[in-house]
Design brief:
The chain has helices at 30-43, 48-66, 105-113, 137-141, and strands at residues 3-9, 15-24, 74-82, 85-93, 116-120, 126-134. Strand 1 and strand 2 (15-24) form a beta hairpin. With 145 residues, it is of the alpha+beta class. Helices cover 32% and strands 34% of the residues. It has a six-stranded antiparallel sheet, covered by helices on one side. It has a single domain, classed as Heat Shock Protein 90 (2-Layer Sandwich).
Length: 145
């Protein structure tokens, strides 16, 4: 596992941090990624519910990707923390796979847990899922009780 942190000022939004983690593309290592997700979300003062939503979303995204991953390769995760938002990009090497099905139950879980979800297949041998979660987004979008 490698970890890089890049920090630079970004105006009023404050500090931008990027943490990259590389793990073997095997489900046995996902607990490390769930722990990193929770720790980074806590750094942004996410609520316990928001942290748990992110952990589950990252786990689900990884499970979707691992089913398409080339055995023996790595899964990379990049966490970008900006102000009140975390963006998580998880990526694996694949062999000619298409984007995840957006009408699949797993995709519905992702869209329910994260504020934004996208699948990225920039090249025929790579697949990524990008999640964004904003602190307090559920409270801002919820109507009066």
């Amino acid at each position: 596992m490698t970890e890089e942190t890049e920090t630079r000022a970004e105006g009023v939004a404050g500090i931008r941090d990027v943490v990259s983690i590389r793990l073997p593309a095997a489900s046995a290592y996902l607990s490390v990624l769930r722990t990193a997700t929770a720790g980074l979300a806590a750094r942004l003062d996410f609520t316990l519910d928001e942290i748990e939503d992110l952990r589950i979303a990252v786990d689900e995204a990884c499970a979707m990707l691992l089913s398409e991953a080339v055995p023996g390769t790595d899964l990379t995760a990049e966490f970008e923390l900006t102000g009140q938002e975390m963006q998580v990009r998880v990526e694996v090497a694949t062999v000619g796979s298409s984007a995840p099905k957006r009408d699949d139950f797993a995709w519905m879980v992702l869209t329910a847990l994260a504020d934004d979800v996208d699948a990225v297949t920039d090249s025929p041998d790579r697949m990524a899922i990008v999640l964004r979660k904003r602190r307090g987004a559920a409270q801002r979008t919820a109507g009066p009780a």
